[in-house]
Design a protein that fits this description.
The chain has about 400 residues and is α+β, with helices and mostly antiparallel strands. Helix content is about 40%, strand content about 20%. Among the domains are: about 45 residues; about 110 residues, 2-Layer Sandwich (Alpha-Beta Plaits), CATH 3.30.70; about 120 residues, Trna Endonuclease, Chain: A, domain 1, CATH 3.40.1350. It has twelve helices and 16 strands. Helix 1 runs parallel beside helix 3, helix 5 crosses helix 6 and helix 7 crosses helix 9. The chain is globular, with a radius of gyration of 28 Å. It comes from Lujinxingia litoralis.
Length: about 400
């Protein structure tokens, strides 16, 4: 749910992009927003053509039509339209066209009626049902089957968030400053970075952290999809306090800045719920007890590791061996070879009793350069994280040996 480029309302000021947010407390804006919501609420079960007509009437032709088109777009995104017909339209069309070809002159009204009757009889439906099904899959004839309702205030907040996300969609780089964060919310933020496969580097400051996120310009295969991931990441920030965001965006083929913070009043309806697990991580956890040697334990527990020069990484798991010694695991999604080398160089310089292993997706490499084979402290996977490879790497990191069941 994001505004398209033709619906953006921004101004350029001294090399910066400034979104023109709506005043959520404005009574006129709330009334018009509620009028749009009411159209979708009252037209469930009606054809899309009728919904479109009522929306166009509500939008009108004033100078502020971009606002109302943007709000309408967000409401369409909350809607589901479906084909409603007793028989699949393509089946009816094929049967009718074949019967019409046999009839020879189907343009006469009585001939048309007989064709509908014969086809309906062969398909077990009425002639009227055949006629309804004939073009029921056209967009304008699809029916509004479900609408996730929202109040006027919520819609205006959603518009402002969508506007900021549309700007971030064009981000080249992103920098987030954090201060005084709750540890649970901070873990959620790093989980969302991993969920959206965003390459990031975290530095510790005197009062918090600075997170730098690379944009699509540095991820050759990511393109705009990576910009979309950066935009989708934004709601996770809104649950925090003491944060600011600075981005460099590609706007009209020029680099411009974009700044955001709590003072902008953005809100997200998305709730912070527990810990998110990627499918491959869930499978890894489920299989660990079955495949790992006796005495090895895996715990989902984030740890902040200092890499020197105030740089840190946040791991995902703690792996404990039979002797009680621990190895930390970080799951790495999107990456470049230079990014991974930097991580490994920093880790190699650490004098830590708890070594770190990087579990790296081969499918999400961000450049064409491959890391040297046999890199110490790295386990590659292609969709499935192999338990034996992880434990083998952990034993190597601890200077121990272990028998591991394949898998």
């Amino acid at each position: 749910m994001m505004l398209t480029s033709d619906l953006l309302r921004v101004k350029k000021s001294r090399g910066a992009i400034v979104p023109r947010y709506l005043d959520v407390d404005d009574e006129v804006a709330r009334e018009r927003a509620q009028a749009l919501v009411a159209i979708f609420e009252s037209h469930q079960g009606k054809a899309r053509a009728l919904v479109d007509e009522r929306v166009e009437e509500a939008i009108g032709h004033g100078t502020d039509f971009l606002i109302w088109r943007g709000l309408a777009k967000l409401l369409y995104d909350r809607s589901e339209f479906e084909v409603r017909a007793q028989v699949a339209p393509e089946v009816v069309r094929e049967a009718l066209f074949l019967e019409a070809a046999r009839a020879g002159n189907p343009h006469r009204e009585d001939a048309r009626r007989r064709i509908l009757e014969r086809v309906g009889e062969s398909l077990g439906v009425s002639p009227e049902a055949c006629e309804v099904a004939l073009y029921a899959d056209l967009e304008e004839r699809q029916v509004l089957s479900a609408f996730k309702t929202i109040d006027a205030e919520g819609l205006l907040h959603r518009y402002n968030l969508a506007l900021a996300q549309a700007v971030l969609y064009r981000a080249l780089t992103l920098k987030v400053h954090l201060q005084g964060q709750n540890s649970g919310r901070l873990r959620h933020l790093f989980q969302m970075l991993k969920f959206h496969r965003l390459m990031h580097r975290t530095e510790r400051t005197g009062k918090g952290y600075v997170i730098e996120v690379d944009g699509p310009a540095s991820v050759l295969k990511g393109g705009r999809r990576y910009g979309l991931a950066m935009a989708k990441f934004l709601p996770a920030l809104l649950h925090l306090k003491g944060w600011t965001l600075e981005a460099v965006v590609d706007w009209d083929n020029k680099e411009r800045t974009f700044a955001l913070g709590p003072q902008d009043g953005l809100q997200s309806a998305r709730r912070v719920r527990g810990q998110w697990l990627a499918e491959e991580e869930q499978w890894f956890e489920e299989r660990f007890s079955e495949k790992a040697p006796e005495g090895w334990r895996l715990e989902r527990r984030g740890q902040v590791v200092d890499l020197g020069d105030n740089e840190v990484l946040v791991t995902d798991y703690v792996l404990t061996g039979p002797g009680g010694r621990e190895v930390l695991l970080e799951i790495v999604g999107t990456w470049r070879a230079s990014y991974l080398r930097r991580r490994l160089e920093r880790l190699a310089a650490l004098k830590s009793e708890r070594p770190v292993i990087l579990v790296v997706s081969e499918r999400l490499r961000g450049d064409r350069e491959k890391l040297e084979a046999g890199a110490v402290g790295v386990v590659f996977y292609k969709g499935v994280i192999l338990v034996d490879k992880v434990v083998e790497a952990a034993c190597q990191a601890l200077g121990e040996g272990a028998e591991v069941r394949p898998g």
